[in-house]
Specification:
The chain has one domain (about 5-115): Deoxyribonuclease I, Chain A. The protein is globular and about 45 Å long. The strands form 2 sheets. The protein has a 4-stranded mixed β-sheet with strand order 4-5-6-7. It has a 3-stranded antiparallel β-sheet with strand order 1-2-3. With about 130 residues, the chain is an alpha+beta fold. The longest helix is centred in the last third of the chain and has 21 residues, at about 85-105. It has helices at about 35-45, 85-105; strands at about 5-10, 10-20, 30-35, 50-55, 55-60, 70-75, 110-115.
Length: about 130
């Protein structure tokens, strides 16, 4: 997925964030929120508020009753193998996610959705 923006396909609105199209690679990643007609109306009723934080985080606000809803879609980096990898990919992701959460009005319900690339259990190595 490249660039960021909104696209309407049929009855659905896609709000997306990805790598810049000038930085195309074979392993580009990105995130999107897909809204049906009712959710699109709720999004527009609140002023069509959305923000592409980076290629791994996008935020969308919806006017809902009794409270507004902020949806944050994420694509987390894979758990790092060492501290150097953590400082270049994982740590900035979680810093950006926290900054995004800090921007959400306290009165909103927050939904964080996406792929956190979690792994469960101990990794087994065979020789």
């Amino acid at each position: 997925m490249y660039d960021n923006g909104t696209t309407v396909i049929g009855d659905y609105t896609f709000i997306y964030s990805g790598h810049s199209s000038t930085d195309k690679t074979h392993s580009a990643h990105g995130v999107a929120v897909c809204l049906n007609e009712q959710a699109t109306t709720a999004w527009k009723n609140l002023g069509a508020i959305w923000e592409a934080i980076n290629e791994r985080i996008v935020m969308v606000r919806l006017a809902c009753k009794p409270i507004n809803v902020t949806v944050i879609a994420v694509y987390a980096p894979v758990n790092p193998k060492n501290q150097q990898m953590a400082s270049t990919t994982t740590d900035p992701f979680y810093t950006d996610l926290q900054s995004t959460l800090d921007k959400v009005p306290r009165s909103d319900m927050v939904l964080i959705i996406g792929d956190f690339n979690a792994r469960i259990g101990m990794q087994q190595h065979t020789t």
